[in-house]
């Protein structure tokens, strides 16, 4: 039996940014690709026949490095987070004219007070989590109509729902929402934390609580955490210590 050999070949070089490209994200349909950079810009590319990629928008608005871009799981709505402490929501007006429909910041929105490193949506797409150099995670909720995939109308309705603080002692670099509604975070304190929504709600709305903290999950900073889409109880983590670890969530921690 022959040995199956794997390889990668470059299909296409896509240029445009003037500095380090920090993040890339495909839309749910695979027809749009978003990139962001230290040049403070977000670019949106549309996949064309013949493996061509046409730039359909260069989004300016952030005043510092853009750390991450993430497409909404249902809509053609893009979220970017930045060194300028803000979260920006981008959408088109139905005529491929992309613009910022909402900026979430500390003043007025209950946003972060320092660099925002990561953003992740829940499976339904009506909530997202962000994490920051301010050592907090923030949960955001939207009342937007998720049945309207091609218009930005109504998608400026994200509001602050909850702040999770006191669980990490250093910068939180990564947060990821599982399909079972467990949020994982990884930070510069070498720890991984897991959070879930309380079954009871207050007048202000639902609350989230820490359900597990793994101290010294790595020997150095935890840079990224990601839940497996096929098995939502398997978590991968990546660290400055040069290792990737796979974790299994055991027990019924959500009771």
UniProtKB/TrEMBL annotation:
Gene3D superfamilies: YVTN repeat-like/Quinoprotein amine dehydrogenase (2.130.10.10). The keyword Repeat applies. Pfam families: WD40. GO terms for cellular component: cytosolic [4Fe-4S] assembly targeting complex. CDD domains: WD40. The keyword Repeat applies. PROSITE patterns: WD_REPEATS_1, WD_REPEATS_2, WD_REPEATS_REGION. It comes from the Eukaryota. WD repeats lie at residues 14-55, 59-90, 109-141, 215-250. GO terms for biological process: iron-sulfur cluster assembly. InterPro entries: WD40/YVTN_repeat-like_dom_sf, WD40_PAC1, WD40_repeat_CS, WD40_repeat_dom_sf, WD40_rpt. Keywords: Repeat, WD repeat. PANTHER family: CYTOSOLIC IRON-SULFUR PROTEIN ASSEMBLY PROTEIN CIAO1-RELATED, WD40 PROTEIN CIAO1. This is Cytosolic iron-sulfur protein assembly protein CIAO1 homolog. It comes from Triticum turgidum subsp. durum. The lineage of its organism: Eukaryota, Viridiplantae, Streptophyta, Embryophyta, Tracheophyta.
């Amino acid at each position: 039996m022959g040995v199956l050999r794997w390889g990668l070949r470059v299909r296409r070089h896509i240029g445009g940014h003037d500095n380090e490209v920090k993040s890339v994200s495909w839309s749910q349909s695979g027809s749009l690709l978003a990139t962001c950079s230290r040049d403070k810009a977000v670019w949106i590319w549309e996949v064309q026949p013949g493996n061509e990629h046409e730039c359909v928008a260069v989004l300016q608005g952030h005043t510092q490095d853009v750390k991450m871009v993430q497409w909404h799981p249902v809509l053609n709505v893009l979220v970017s987070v930045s060194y300028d402490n803000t979260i920006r929501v981008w959408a088109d007006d139905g005529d491929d004219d992309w613009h910022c429909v909402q900026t979430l910041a500390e003043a007025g929105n209950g946003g972060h007070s320092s660099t925002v490193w990561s953003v992740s949506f829940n499976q339904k797409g009506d909530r997202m989590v962000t994490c920051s150099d301010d050592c907090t995670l923030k949960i955001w909720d939207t009342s937007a109509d998720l049945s309207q995939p091609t218009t930005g109308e109504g998608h400026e309705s994200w509001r602050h729902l909850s702040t999770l603080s006191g669980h990490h002692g250093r910068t939180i670099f990564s947060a990821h929402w599982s399909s079972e509604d467990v949020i994982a975070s990884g930070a510069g304190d070498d720890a991984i934390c897991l959070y879930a929504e309380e079954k009871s709600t207050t007048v202000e709305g639902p609350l989230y609580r820490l359900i597990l903290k793994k101290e010294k999950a790595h020997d150095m900073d935890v840079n990224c955490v990601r839940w497996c889409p096929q098995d939502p109880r398997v978590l991968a983590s990546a660290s400055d210590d040069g290792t990737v670890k796979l974790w299994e969530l055991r027990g019924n921690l959500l009771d």
